[in-house]
Amino acid sequence: MTIPMYLGVFAVLVVGTILTYVVATMDLDWIFPGANTLVALLIAFTKMTCVMLFFMHVYWSPKLIWLSVIASFFWLAIMFAFTMQDYFTRGSGVFTT
Amino acid sequence: MSAHASDKFVYHEPGLQHQFEDMRQQEESVSIGMWMFLAQEIMFFGGLFTAYLVLRSRYPMAFAAGSNHLDAFLGGLNTLVLIVSSLTMALTVYYAQRSNRNMQVILIVLTMIFGGVFLGVKAIEYTDKYNHGLVPVTGLNKKVKEGAKAEHSGLTLPIETRANAAEAPGAAHAYVNPKGEFQWVEYDLIEKTFEQQKSDPDGNHLTASELIGYTSNGQIDHDKFRDKVRIFYWIYFVMTGLHALHMVIGLGLMAWLLWTAWKGYYSMEYYMPVEMSGLYWHFVDIVWIFLFPLLYLLGRHFGH
After folding, report:
1. pTM given for the model
2. Segments making up each domain of chain A, as ranges
């Protein structure tokens, strides 16, 4: 990593922050309900990936580190998925009583 | 100097601890230990994100209403402050790898300053919540007796009087709160959405949980809606509070790094403590990258 590369990652993060702020003020529900949340999360994931790969040097790390990083997000996904498959299937669903 | 000494001579790198074979093995072991710690931190915050996910999927309008009352400008400013501190931290590691003591010290001090600014802005936001009765614990809000002059006595900060006293939708309501209870006065958006749901029963304007959780006898029940907004503020205070605690621990780490870097401990041969503290600092930054849109921006587009 050279200093211009660090500054480049930094620029991406600043642009992402401003973008997420601007997009949040627009109503994207005409695409589909909840599109705002999806866009905000996509930007957040992009920013996270930049920080992890370059600021945290995962990109140049041994495979064992890659495995730990991916595994920890996999466990997190299991926690979300198993919790939500319970909550979303209680009663007759999210919208109808 | 016997002839046998040369048989036993092994080159020993200055930063190598004796239990490791070589620097590569040492660095990999240190990294894997730190990443295991970060993996459990991810699960630790993940539990709170799960609570957020469950409660927001049940009461989206109450969460949007609560979120709209947070100051998105200060939240965004804090995001930028943390990103700058992440850059200075990454550059600290860069200079540690090049044995540059002076730049390390300067950049650690800058990282600490930005971390301090973050906590300062957070304190301003918490004070604002205290002044407006938005702390979800009874008794921890500003207490104003009936008939007292309600205009911003007590803790007032210059940034907060301008932004909120005039513009907040609840400004017309006098702040009277003798017991320091949770206050909520904005019901326009939920009343409007409830009318839409009634005129268009198949329209999915409110979730099943909301239709039960906000209403009594076919009307929006202000007490029940306020309790759901209060849940949002619980989530807000627990998540940002825990994040702020991590920032304080991070500042402690930085203070220790500053001391050791000042004494010139770190060099090209041995810089792993700087790198590992950096991993922790970047992790805390990543948590905020998710907290900012999820807490501050989620209901902005309803724009009431």
Report:
1. 0.88
2. 1-59, 61-97
Q: Helix, strand or coil for residue B212?
A: helix
* φ, ψ for residue B215, nearest 5 deg: -120, 150
Task: Domain B43-147+155-162+177-299: give its CATH code.
Answer: 1.20.120.80
Q: Select from B46, B293, B297 the Cβ nearest to the Cβ of A76.
A: B46
User: What is d(CA B221, CA B136) in angstroms, rounded to the nearest whole number?
Assistant: 19
ipTM for the complex shown: 0.93
- Condensed to tens digits (0 to 9), the pLDDT of residues B164-208 reads 444 454 455 677 888 889 989 889 889 998 998 889 888 788 888
Domain boundaries of chain B, sorted by first residue: 43-147+155-162+177-299
Residues B35-54: pLDDT tens digits? 999 999 999 999 999 999 99
Q: How far apart are CA B192 and CA A41, in angstroms?
A: 28
Chain A residues within an 8 Å CB radius of B84: 10
- Name residues 30-89 of chain B within 8 A of A (Cβ): 31-32, 35-36, 38-39, 42-43, 46-47, 49-50, 53-54, 57-58, 72, 76, 79-80, 83-84, 86-87, 89
